[in-house]
Amino acid sequence: MLELLNIHKTYESQPLLEGISFKVAAGETVCLLGASGSGKSTLLRIIAGLEQAEQGRVLWDGEDLAAIPVHQRNFGLVFQDYALFPHLSVAGNVAFGLRMRSLPEGEIKLRIAEAISKVNLTGFEERRVTNLSGGEQQRVALARALAIQPRLLMLDEPLGALDRALKDDLLDGLRHILHESGIPAIYVTHDQAEAFAIADRILLLHQGRIIQSGAPAEVYAHPGSAWAARFLGAGNLVEGEVRAAQADGWLVGTQAGDFLVRCTDTHRVGDQVNLLVDRHLVRQAENGSLRSRVADVVFQQTGFKVSLENGLIFYLDAAPKVGEEIHLEVPSAAVQCVP
Q1: Are residues 241 and 196 in the same domain?
Q2: Has this prediction a pTM greater than 0.85?
Q3: Looking at the structure, do residues 317 and 217 belong to the same domain, yes or no?
Q4: Which stretch, 193-197, 265-269, 294-298, has highest mean pLDDT?
Q5: What pLDDT is stored for residue 308 in this prediction?
Q6: pLDDT tens per residue, range 95-124
Q7: What is the pLDDT at residue 304?
Q8: Residue 326 sits in which domain range?
Q9: What CATH number has the domain bearing residue 196?
Q10: Is-contact 221 281, C-beta < 8 A?
Q11: Radius of gyration over alpha carbons of the chain, in Å?
């Protein structure tokens, strides 16, 4: 399968990618997740052969792809802007890569039908792509990539131009297609919700490096840095100072209150630490140690999003009143140290 070894790339004399290495296993969907400008799309273009790395290698089953031109790599590409041919029909767009490969007309027709069926566009074959919705156009782009039966599928912000409801619908279909086909895939996005929904494994990119790798639930529950926690929206991130050692952890003081932290790291009184406080594991309690007035309350499907005047946000089953002072019990299991 695909393997990247120590990829380096600069942009305008500044480092863009610094020592990127990872593998994509058979049937695996890997998501490159990071902020705009973190090098995600450039990395995808290097894998495709559209750009050259200044250092490092791209391998497929151990073979170096440096000398293999783009059209011979048999990698499928799907972009945010669809890159469809406006003068062609749906079938004409799906057929483009097949005709470039000079396949027999009978096989081309069969592959067009199969690809269009996979993306639920049967009956749309003769429509002009300019008459389709954004979601339908993206499905045409996906069908075109699938029709060539690629050994790797790469998707660069494929749903970036769509609204959330349409994204969710297409993500469900895309996840099913990838699992059913067994095609390994690299999915590039800056959207955490997309990454968690589609990926088997997430690679978190920051300042040109992979700073964390793991299953979506693992990366979200245990971010490896304060930046990762903030970017992922994994909880309340607060700065604190170690006040005292406790039998089962450390007492850490913050502007929002004191927290008991079960942390295996070695600390000393006075050390500055970053705490990640889970937004879901707290509950209202008369003797709760965390006290603050309610700044805002928003209903959501899973409960009430409660913003406090101390800057923290929690999700509660019952809605307090804005301006009311509430007391919250924060169990030690809801608090962790992050570097």
Answers
A1: no
A2: yes
A3: no
A4: 294-298
A5: 96
A6: 999 998 889 999 999 999 999 999 999 999
A7: 96
A8: 235-338
A9: 3.40.50.300
A10: no
A11: 24
**C-alpha to C-alpha distances, 272 to 120, 225, 242, nearest whole angstrom:** 54, 14, 7
The amino acid sitting at 147 is: A
Query: Cα separation of 94 and 136, whole Å?
Result: 13
Give the mean pLDDT of the chain. 92
Mean pLDDT of 311-326: 95
Q: What is the pLDDT of residue 169?
A: 79
Number of domains in the chain: 2
Residue where a domain terminates, one of 196, 214, 230:
230
* Residue keyed to tokens 């790599």: 73
The answer to whether residues 205 and 302 belong to one domain is no
Residues 192, 130, single domain; the answer is: yes
DSSP H or E stretch at residue 193: helix 192-198
Pairing outcome for strands 152-156 and 75-79: parallel
The reply to whether 161 and 178 lie within a common domain is yes
Which pLDDT does position 255 carry in this prediction? 87
CA distances from 218 to 206, 222, 223, 228 (A): 18, 6, 8, 12
Distance CA 158, CA 44 (A): 13
Domain final residue pick, 176, 203, 230 = 230
Compute CA distances 39 → 11, 93, 160, whole Å: 10, 29, 17
Locus of tokens 């003081």 = 253
* Same domain, residue pair 221 and 252: no
Asked whether residue 225 falls in the same domain as residue 248, the answer is no
Supply the DSSP string of 151-183, one letter for each residue. SEEEEESTTTTS-HHHHHHHHHHHHHHHHHH--
